[in-house]
Structures are given as structure tokens and as C-alpha cells.
From TrEMBL:
Protein name (Swiss-Prot/TrEMBL): Cobalt-precorrin-5B C(1)-methyltransferase
Pathway: Cofactor biosynthesis; adenosylcobalamin biosynthesis; cob(II)yrinate a,c-diamide from sirohydrochlorin (anaerobic route): step 6/10
A Pfam short name: CbiD
Entries under SUPFAM superfamilies matching the protein: CbiD-like (SSF111342)
Keyword Manganese: no
Gene3D superfamilies registered for this protein in UniProt: CbiD-like
EC number in record: 2.1.1.195
Superkingdom field: Bacteria
HAMAP family, per the entry: CbiD
Organism: Anaerotruncus colihominis
Keywords on record: Cobalamin biosynthesis, Methyltransferase, S-adenosyl-L-methionine, Transferase
Organism placement in taxonomy: Bacteria, Bacillati, Bacillota, Clostridia, Eubacteriales
Length: 383
């Protein structure tokens, strides 16, 4: 049954979904009920960690020698989630030990790096889903008259999990072989900022467990590629998307020795206006900022009007070069962005490199070069 729960994003009404953790718990409960009763289960009721009751359809149920297996299909609602529609399976065997053992099988990722929710070597089934799976199975055992002395061995599998995982952050996080079974509240909210920020924090925790030196942060793949190919920073970067401020705050909390932010002018020019959430729906001001700094560099009113009419930062950069003030403007923009970055970072040393795809480095803060040298040495020592 579709979850009839909605959130408002801008002018849109978007339907919520439920997490892979809820699917795993529901499938495990259904399999336990079927194993005890010997009867097919078509629907199963579960309560999410934030106390929402769901009645979910059970698919592909089967029984074998001492086990039952059921699946629940992931419904991400209106969220752009690569796991939407995926079947999450749970296979359950009853045991005579009063414990619930939860393991991941085919298509469930395996943790290979420290710093994540689960220890190295464990299945990537996070703490809250594990608690929910255990609670749902215990409910089924109690309802089936098995009491507290009974236990169960549960294996979660995702047949398409390994292929799907290649389109998630798991390879970056050191989770191999499949997807993660996730969920804190049990509910997927479309366009969720919190989910994206949680992913950024998870990646930073992994990096911190690997080393404490300066951290390379970039909004996206362009920045990561530029850092590797042009700046010769071959170590892993944390991709922060539009959430630069959240990434800086997390780096401060985790006590990295420094932070180097590398990004395209189209994103990082916004920092010169104190904008740390660079999504266009939050703020733009790219041309306003460039025009203000052009005026400080002596640009005429006519030039400023042309800058304000530019649609892209690349077009604005071309115009600044045409009028001979590109270097002055980029020096001013970089300096101002660096001031805001350092203010946000506090005691954490923070440096900045701004680039464009066509022109390469457009500006860097005073300490960026020495921080990059240090990062290269650290990378060489680790090899």
C-alpha cells in the first residue's frame, strides 16, 4: 500500500516513502509469521521508529526446510532514490537461543573502512534498522506463542543490490558488494536535505578514521577531477554538493588539521557573499557579487550592466577578461570568500582554490599552496 504522507517542497506536494530499513524489518516479520503459522502472509504491519504505522504488501514469499523468506518492495515516494522499487528480502530461521542474529547476504554491502555506523567486516545494516528488525521479529515470535526464549537468525538480501550500489555513495564510503540498509525515522522525505547532509557526514567520518591531516572538500565531480589532474591532489575528496557550510562545520567537529575547498567559480563565487548553501533555490547572487567586485576594481556602469546581464559565470569571466580586470576581480572575490570561509571554520585552518573549466585556477587564498604541498606529502607517505 502506498504511503499517504506528504511534504511540501516549494510549490510542490510530494509523497513520502519508506526506507530500506523498514522494508527489511517488514520482510523479516512476515517471514517469521509465516514460519510459525505455516500460512502465507500477504500484508504485514510495522511501526516506524518515529511511530508511524505502515501496512505493507508482502511479495515472493516462500518456505523451505526450516526457513521462510519474504520480500517487501522499497517505495521511495516522490524522492529520486535509486533503490525505489527494489525488493528487499529477509530469510528467517528459528533458533533455540534467545537472541536475534541479523546478517547481510547477497546484495547487501560490507563495511571495509572504519568510521561508519557499523564496524569493519560487518554487513552495512545500520543500527536503527537492526533495532527495528529485531523488534519486529520479537513481536512476531511473541504473537506466535514462542515467548522470549525463542530466537532467530535473519539474513537480509537484495538481488540487484550490487548493481544498484554503483549508483550510490557506497563505493566512496568503502562499502562493497551491495547497498546499505538505512533509515533513522523509517520515512523517506523527498528532496530531503537531511539525507544528503548525513551522507556527507558519513564520508567525512570515514576520511577522519583514515587520517587527521588536511581534508580536501569539493562540491562535485568537476572539483574532484580538477584537484587530481591539475592540482595533483590524488587523495580522496569529500563531495559536499551545495552544503559547503555543513561540510566545514563537520570538519571542525571532527578536528581535521585543515580544510582545502576546491570548486568551480559558479559555486564558490557565492562564498564571497557569505552564502554557504549554494543551491540556486536558496540563493544565487553570482552576478551581483561579480559586479560588485568589478565595480571595486574600477569597472564603469556600462560594464557593470553587461555583467549583470550575463547568464553564466563563464560568460562573466570572458567579459572581465575583455575589459582587462579579470585578475583584479578574482583576487578580490577570492579574498572575500576566504574571509567568510575562515570565519565559518574558526580555529580550523581553511584555504580555498577557485577554478573554471576553461581557464584553470582563477584564484587561491594565501595559504592554499602550502596546504596543498602538505597534502601531497601526506599522500606520498601513505603510499
Amino acid at each position: 500500500m502506498a504511503l499517504e504522507r506528504y511534504v511540501i517542497s516549494g510549490a510542490k506536494k510530494l509523497r513520502c516513502g519508506f526506507t530500506t530499513g523498514v522494508c527489511a524489518a517488514a520482510a523479516a516479520k512476515a517471514a517469521t509469521v509465516m514460519l510459525i503459522s505455516g500460512k502465507a502472509v500477504e500484508q504485514v504491519a510495522v511501526t516506524t521508529p518515529n511511530d508511524i504505522r505502515l501496512v505493507l504488501e508482502v511479495e515472493d514469499a516462500s518456505c523451505g526446510d526450516g526457513f521462510a523468506r519474504c520480500a517487501v518492495r522499497k517505495d521511495a515516494g516522490d524522492d529520486a532514490d535509486v533503490t525505489d522499487g527494489t525488493l528487499i528480502y529477509a530469510s528467517v530461521r528459528l533458533t533455540d537461543k534467545p537472541e536475534i542474529v541479523i546478517e547481510g547476504g547477497m546484495g547487501v554491502g560490507r563495511v571495509t573502512c572504519p568510521g561508519l555506523d557499523q564496524p569493519v567486516g560487518a554487513a552495512a545494516i545500520n543500527r536503527v534498522p537492526r533495532l527495528m528488525i529485531a523488534r519486529c521479529v520479537r513481536e512476531a515470535l511473541a504473537d506466535g506463542g514462542r515467548g522470549r526464549r525463542a530466537g532467530a537468525y535473519i539474513e537480509i538480501t537484495v538481488p540487484d543490490g550490487e548493481a544498484i550500489a554503483q549508483r550510490t555513495f557506497n563505493p566512496r564510503l568503502g562499502i562493497v558488494g551491495g547497498i546499505s540498509i538505512l533509515g533513522t525515522t523509517g520515512i523517506v522525505e523527498p528532496m530531503s536535505t537531511a539525507a544528503l547532509i548525513d551522507t556527507i557526514r558519513a564520508e567525512m567520518n570515514v576520511r577522519r578514521a583514515q587520517w587527521a591531516g588536511p581534508l580536501l572538500v569539493t562540491p562535485g565531480n568537476y572539483g574532484e577531477t580538477f584537484a587530481a589532474q591539475t592540482l595533483h591532489l590524488s587523495g580522496p575528496a569529500v563531495l559536499c554538493s551545495n552544503y559547503i557550510g555543513e561540510a566545514v562545520d563537520c570538519a571542525v567537529r571532527l578536528r581535521f588539521e585543515g580544510l582545502l575547498l576546491v570548486g568551480h567559480i559558479g559555486k564558490l563565487v557565492k562564498l564571497a557573499g557569505g552564502i554557504f548553501d549554494t543551491h540556486s533555490r536558496t540563493a544565487d547572487a553570482r552576478m551581483e557579487i561579480l559586479t560588485a567586485h568589478a565595480a571595486l576594481a574600477g569597472a564603469s556602469r556600462a560594464i557593470c550592466m553587461k555583467l549583470m546581464a550575463c547568464v553564466t559565470t563563464d560568460a562573466a569571466i570572458d567579459l572581465l577578461e575583455e575589459f582587462g580586470i579579470l585578475n583584479l576581480v578574482m583576487q578580490s572575490v577570492t579574498e572575500r570568500a576566504g574571509i567568510y570561509l575562515c570565519r565559518r571554520a574558526g580555529a580550523l585552518p581553511a584555504e580555498l582554490v577557485i577554478f573554471s573549466n576553461a581557464r584553470g585556477v582563477l584564484g587561491m587564498t594565501d595559504g592554499a599552496r602550502s596546504m596543498m604541498d602538505r597534502m601531497r606529502r601526506n599522500m606520498e607517505e601513505q603510499q
